[in-house]
Amino acid sequence: MTSTTTADATGTSPEATDTPTPTATHTATDESAAPDGLRAAVVARAEALADELDTFSRDLHAHPEVGFVEFRSVAAIEALLARHGVALEVGTGGLPTAFRARAGSTEGPQVVITAEYDALPGVGHGCGHNVIAASSLGAFLSIAPLVQAGVVPGGVTLLGTPAEEGGGGKELLIRAGALDGFDASVMVHPGGADVAAGPSAAKRQVVATFQGRTAHAAANPHLGRNALDAAVTAYQSVAQLRQHILPTDRVHGVFLEAGTRPNIVPERAVLEFFLRSRTVEGLVALSERVEAAFRGAALAAGVEVDVVWDGEPVYLPQRINATLAEVFAAHSAPRREVLSVQREAEAVGSSDVGNVSHLLPTIQPTVAIGDPGIPGHSRERADSTLTPDGRRAIVDSAIALALTAASVLDDPALREAAWAEFREAGDPVRVDALFPGAPWPDLPTPPVSA
Hints:
The chain is of the alpha/beta class.
């Protein structure tokens, strides 16, 4: 079946986590199960799209693009939607590789289905964003005809969010107002187990540039000041710090610059680190300790250090909405056994979905693909998306996401309960109220069509 839905183009984020220990599974209930006719229509639509969605996912896998340069990926998305009569707005929020499509009315309840499609440098789709994009497209195409026809009230928006792996596309779209006015945000993420919801960590980025003085490393090294020595000391100091931080905190970094030639005392060395913590308060405390390590190392080596925080947007920890997560689990139950909300997983990643979750009720369930032991951000994880397991995950996720969106749009009591849980966790939070805003990135120019 081919939809003739036309989207209104004038409309208004975890890295993979460790596999949780199974504690409970969720089964469908009368309260959250979709009416038989609606469920049948969504399932039929998603299954009819299965070949097309799997082919699209494989195409993204074969042509990975990193954040803010996902031009080919967006063109592939635009072409797929066009085959189903859906117009796409590209360049949403001033981001060349963000996009938006809408079905239904701009009045009444609204749900946004977010999509990610950026890849990792050197690893490709090692976080499975090809599956995320395919699942979100499938969900939108499965529910859009029903919303457009008025079978389900309100409106549904598909929002393409670039640069989740670095760059914070969702945070930039939040600043641009592209996530205002919605009652819920939904998407999935591949992983080792089917989980309704789990935690993610707050994350921020820091770059420390050490500046010394050159000299001949053999003839007169005493006249130099070694910036690399300072950077090595700083790196080791942070490594030693790891023993004395919370077991859920993470600090990991790389050398971006480390000198030019062995016979020249290095005058410049650069470190970049990511810091993660379960809470914003923990992130701030960890930041102070890491900066102290940088400045102490510079003092010891007799060099200067420039510490620059948040060249990329800060990612907030996930604000779990169990109300919506359990609805997703219930809609998944006929096809998958989904673990209930897991709040205490120790090792977690970070996502700009966390920023969205502090503005409105948000879910990002995990869908299992392949062996549970496959690490995230690996070529093995990327290749797992090409298996029959990956294809099944796309279709199952599209169905559950579409039905969850329908439940939110059709059930005022569910919307009220989701917002009540959201408000119980605190007021809406915007990153720039907590940290100085990251600079707007220098964005590449879209390629000129032949």
